Amino acid sequence: MFGYDIGIVSGAMHQLQQHFSLSCLEQEVMVSSLLLGALGGSLFGGYLIDRVGRKASIVSASLLFLVGAMILAGAMNYGTLLLGRIILGFAMSLSAASECVYVSEVAPAKIRGSLVSLNEFGITLGILLSYFIGLAFATNPSGWRYMFGLSSIGGLVVCITILFLPRSPRFLLLNGKTVEAKDALTQVRTRSESFRVSLEEEFTSMRNLPVDTSGCFSFQQQCNRKLCFPVFIGIGLVVFQQTTGEPNVLFYASTILSQLGFHSDTAAGLAAVCLGLSKVVATVVCLLFVDRLGRKVFLLIGSMVMAFTILGVAIVSFVNEVQGVYMCSTPNASNVSLAGNITGSPINPGVPEIKWVALMLLMIFIAAYSCSFGPVSWIILSEIFPLNVRGRLFALVTCFNWAVNLAISASFLDFAKSSQGLAGPFVTSCVFCVAATVFIYLVIPETRGKRLEEISALLDKGLISFMRTQCRCSNDEPSMPLIRMEAVS
Question: Which pTM does this prediction carry?
Fold first, then answer.
């Protein structure tokens, strides 16, 4: 439901703009209200995850998805729309954190990346489904009610199915429930000849990890325990995840595509489906190979490809004089010429095929993100924090994620208008993609194939020591390879 609720506003926005006569600011607030709720979910969700558990938090998020969807489907005014979006945002944030933490704690080290990526795959399927639903109801004036209401079905399904899964064995162990923890671990491991031996080794490793069960959380105290390094990694990842521009393409897909030449709701909807398909395919590629090639190789290649493709879209927008004047409105009789082109020339009518070049570049851009920042950021975030404060630190970092996303999404349309088109926002995204590449090279460790306890030991060396290793500047310890390319046997 995370992905569906992110993507559905793109298909519903034109209908909402016409039904409620939304201004540019009101459209931005409509999109951003989801992120405002997500920010609130990050502030309180971490406490819930560490206090009531990972599984209970997922159930709570599913119920909130159900409530939010019903409120949106029956909304009679703009204020009710915002309330429903805020509730969905809270649920989205809580589900994102609790699901990633849960999966990372129950998954074996060798396939942990793939399983966390499977969660991201579900998100991309939700986004693609939302684009198909938006296309199906594009010609129905009240279609937005069906678009929002259908998400309640997913919330109900998730709420029921999660009840059949065991609780996190690491969470149970943290709370002193040793027997229950071993039983839970047994349920999520494949039985084989070496099953009992490997299970005992893993359980012993989990028990030997020193944790503070006092429940006290002091940032000064935690930083003295060398937690600044994983927190810095987490904040850097989520900031670049948002500033590289892909979330804006998802939220405003139909608006952007209509500016690039796909003027009708149906044409923009079909083009948005192409973006969704590229996202799904790329996520599958990451899911299949992230535990073979490693996290870092996907991040590096993805950020570089994103930089080149989004720069290409910016050039297309600039050369063909894509204007920002109609970013907040839909084509109508007053601004569409007899030839079918919007006055202000969103795309040069002499080169109509250029919109397909722009669409292809956006598809590659989305695919690069979905092979890198999309799934890999969440994989790394689920791996780098200590057990006893994993939920709270995960939530702290996702606060930055949603705050940056909120700021960018709330200002995208105005930025495009003030810069006279899409070139300004996309060039800015290109700059952040380049900066992200440098950050990944210097700061991000390779966590492939390591147990969570081994990753904690790796990060204990601290940020400066690790960066010296990456730069080959340290003589007192051997250099670690930047990217481990050998396949996992």
Answer: 0.70
